[in-house]
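In response to the reviewer comment on reproducibility (Comment 2.3), we provide here a single inverse folding case reported in full, input and output, so that an independent group could reproduce the run without further information from us. The structure tokens appear first.
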């Protein structure tokens, strides 16, 4: 079951131009969960846009600005103390305390830049993981959690 914070965000994005950005590395097991999410959702087009930024979101800053979203939602794996597979909506002050993914540039710097550049509301949906080994398969527990979020987002598109 999704948290109240995520459910509230999903209600908020219903009538807003929203960009979901998938971060992570598909070659590192569960770290690729946000890429999995983004690929599964890319055909969902009702005011929702999806971008695969992998481990280099800084390479897509101009594209993000050109899309001109009202809301930006980064999706990423995090190494934290929460149970494996738990999906959380992180507040800005929580982002620096979570060990976020494998991307090279600080997500905090990217968020600060985008807030100033396009004025969008920015959120981070984080999937708690425990491993990011070099393998291509996502563990079933992580995939099941992501599939629940996918169902909710597809409902927004219909």
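Designed residues, in position order:
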């Amino acid at each position: 079951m999704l948290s109240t914070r995520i459910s509230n965000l999903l209600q908020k994005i219903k009538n807003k131009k929203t960009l979901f950005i998938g971060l992570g590395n598909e070659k590192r097991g569960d770290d690729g969960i946000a890429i999995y999410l983004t690929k599964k959702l890319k055909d969902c087009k009702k005011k929702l846009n999806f971008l695969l930024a992998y481990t280099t979101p800084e390479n897509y800053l101009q594209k993000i600005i050109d899309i001109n979203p009202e809301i930006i939602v980064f999706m990423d794996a995090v190494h934290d103390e929460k149970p494996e597979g738990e999906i959380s909506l992180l507040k800005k002050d929580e982002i620096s305390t979570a060990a976020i993914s494998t991307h090279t540039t600080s997500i905090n710097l990217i968020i600060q830049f985008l807030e100033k550049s396009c004025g969008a509301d920015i959120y981070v949906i984080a999937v708690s993981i425990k491993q990011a080994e070099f393998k291509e398969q996502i563990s079933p527990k992580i995939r099941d959690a992501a599939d629940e979020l996918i169902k909710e987002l597809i409902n927004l598109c219909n």
